[in-house]
């Protein structure tokens, strides 16, 4: 799905991507995730992203989203291991800079990251947990072929109750199609 017709390309997260992480930490973009993080929290998150992208055990990967043909970094996406209802799965999440939303960027990047997660052949499912009130991210899940399983309440970040939709993509079925 990260083909020549896609409006985006995903590239492994690297040391040089901290400014992009700071840019997506804007209040409007973090509204559904408990608000912006402190700079100290961002630096720690950035290091986790760098470490995850260097990992070759199948634990996951983080990527910058690059808009074509402009070749401009416009967001962040990734997948990582998670235990969900007693089963190991991959989870995904993304953020796209405000000026680039509504152009299919997040959907194309989500399809590309699902392809990468499927290539790992480690877990059958990729899950996403957008806030019930985040219509745009829920639309991305629907357009990218995820199945809506229902709602679940989480604390994210800790101390912040968050009602989410639970979306699941069958990576094995996606590989066969």
Structural class: alpha+beta
Strand content: 25-35%
Helices, by number, come to 5
Q: Sheet bearing the most strands, described?
A: 7 strands, mixed
Rg over C-alpha atoms, rounded to the nearest angstrom:
15 Å
Stretches where pLDDT is under 50 for at least 5 consecutive residues are: none
User: Taking strands numbered 1, 2, ... along the chain, how are they ordered across the largest sheet?
Assistant: 1-2-3-4-5-7-6
Order of helices and strands: EHHEEEHEHEEH
Which percent bin holds the helix content? 25-40%
Beta strand count: 7
Instruction: Output mean pLDDT.
Output: 91
- Straight-line N-to-C gap: 12 Å
What characteristic shape results from the CA principal axes? globular
Descriptive notes:
The mean pLDDT is 91. This protein has helices at residues 18-23, 39-54, 105-120, 135-143, 171-176; strands spanning 8-12, 60-67, 72-84, 87-96, 125-128, 147-155, 161-170. It has 177 residues and is of the alpha+beta class. The chain has five helices and seven strands, in the order E-H-H-E-E-E-H-E-H-E-E-H. It has a seven-stranded mixed sheet with strand order 1-2-3-4-5-7-6, with helices on both faces.
């Amino acid at each position: 799905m990260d083909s020549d017709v896609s409006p985006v390309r995903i590239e492994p997260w690297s040391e040089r991507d901290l400014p992009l992480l700071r840019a997506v930490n804007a209040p409007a973009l973090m509204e559904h995730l408990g608000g912006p993080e402190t700079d100290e929290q961002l630096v720690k998150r950035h290091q986790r992203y760098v470490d995850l992208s260097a990992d070759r055990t199948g634990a996951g990967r983080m990527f910058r989203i690059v808009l074509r043909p402009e070749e401009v970094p416009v967001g962040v996406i990734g997948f990582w291991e998670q235990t969900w209802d007693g089963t190991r799965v991959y989870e995904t999440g993304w953020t796209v800079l405000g000026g680039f939303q509504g152009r299919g960027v997040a959907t194309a990047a989500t399809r590309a990251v699902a392809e990468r997660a499927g290539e790992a052949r480690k877990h059958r499912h990729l899950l996403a947990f957008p806030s019930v009130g985040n219509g745009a991210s829920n639309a991305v899940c629907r357009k990218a072929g995820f199945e809506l399983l229902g709602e679940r309440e989480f604390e994210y970040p800790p101390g912040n109750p968050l009602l989410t939709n639970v979306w699941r993509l069958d990576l094995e079925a996606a590989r066969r199609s």
